[in-house]
Amino acid sequence: MAEALAKQVEKISGRGLSSLHFLQTYAAPGRPVILEDVVPSWPCWTTWRDEQGEPNFSQLVADFKGCDGPVSDCQKRGEAPDVWDVSSYLLWAQEEDKGSDHKQLLYLKDWHLVQACRAAGKEVPYEAPAFLDSPLHDWLNLHKDTVAPGKEDYRFCYVGVKGTRTPLHHDVLFSHSWSANICGMKHWIFYPPEVSEFLLDEHSEAAETGIPRRCDPQRFPRVAEAWEKRLEAIQYPGQLIFVPSGWYHEVENLSLAVSINHNWLNASNAEMVWGFLLKELEAVKRKIGDERKNFSSEAEFLEHCQVVLQANSELDLEGWLSLLTTAAEEVDRRFKAQPQGEELHEVEWVATKLRALIERCLECPALQELPKASASAELLRALAPEVSHVEAISEKAAQVLSGFQQKYQSMLMEHHEKFHGQQLRELELWSKNKNIQERRRQLWEQCGARKAQLAEELEDFTWSAW
Ligand SMILES: O=C(O)CCC(=O)C(=O)O
Ligand SMILES: [Fe+2]
């Protein structure tokens, strides 16, 4: 029987896409999407490609001679990558690509491109849209740039010959990722979070692939159920793909491919990252719990757990607090610049989510038991009010709306007394009328941005509707 065609990842134009639309429609609900029309305006689209759209090896080699990058052998899973001079790898890949069968599947992965450019005094040859790459929407790299400038960030370049692949995984820290193809084609398979458990063995170890015929049925008895729910995409040059937090995915290069990839987190997925960190911390505590007695105090044991957490996940709780602090400072900076209209709405959307998350984090027992982290928590607590005026706005909006509902209710009662039978039914039907429901929903959504206007508008609307 022919295999059912997999559902394909949605494609939209990224040109002119608003940050809020991307956040609310794709990033927050976790919905993969391919953005067209973004990459072809980047400088690297011209400088890294020749007329045929193949990698411009002479330019790339000249640009990155002397930069180091990690090269993995896809046939030796689990081995640490070798460090190569990027230009040597590029020359190897150019030669390898001329042959028809690829004996060696060497993949330049997670090469820190922005750092390489900065170190070489070169312009970074791309600029992703603000919703992917601005300080307001990329707290992970903002944090890295702030606390450890020049140290490892999450902005990468990948170069791989045909057949190289990245096995099934979710991204570091449960972050989102995006990947922009400059040259070549990639085959992506995505598995939604609700089927993640079918891709894990009894030790919570992920399968190498979710393709059932390549999976051990003893170890992964329900892998076919994950496979059924997959989304697939062939990503062409010039397309940017969004991989939401927590989605397992696997990728294969169908031809010599050059891509730029970022991992990032922001108001749309920070809650998931926080949940992931807490789960990881619990796992660390369980794993090294037996060694508790070897520590001179409980505090020392807990500090050690943080060191392990940092080593496993590249972030500990203190780092997390510092990341939130940097984000809160950025939100504050944006408010002080007095944004208007859509931009104000965007900053408020971020601030509301950040504020709620900060409060949840500060209440968390895992944080309170850490002496070092509690110092950072104090700092954050001091900062939190900076983003709190958004709450006041929501409160006001809620008051206005409840006032509206009361007024509306009493009007209904009044009419109840005046009309009977058919008239009453009509009135009640009308009260459920989609227009008013829809308008109320819109007003709710806009209330952050509209502030004082809202009261007036509701008032006007109420009367004109009657
Ligand atoms: O392109 C690849 O090989 C893997 C990319 C990836 O996993 C990602 O961008 O999250
Ligand atoms: Fe990934």
Fourth-tier CATH superfamily name of the largest domain = Cupin
The CATH class assignment of the largest domain is: Mainly Beta
Total helices: the number is: 18
Mean pLDDT: 86
Pfam families: Cupin_8
Organism: Durusdinium trenchii
Domain JmjC: 125-281
Protein name: 2-oxoglutarate and iron-dependent oxygenase JMJD4 (JmjC domain-containing protein 4) (Jumonji domain-containing protein 4) (Lysyl-hydroxylase JMJD4)
Describe, in plain words, how this protein is organized in 3D.
The protein is built from 18 helices and 14 strands. With 466 residues, it is α+β, with helices and mostly antiparallel strands. The strands form two sheets. Strands 2-3-12-9-14-7-6-4-5 form a nine-stranded mixed sheet. Helix 1 links the parallel strand 2 and strand 3. The chain is globular and about 60 Å long. It binds 2-oxoglutaric acid (AKG) and fe (ii) ion. The site of 2-oxoglutaric acid (AKG) has 10 residues, from strand 9 and strand 14. InterPro entries: Cupin_8 (IPR041667), JmjC_dom (IPR003347), JMJD6_ArgDemeth/LysHydrox (IPR050910).
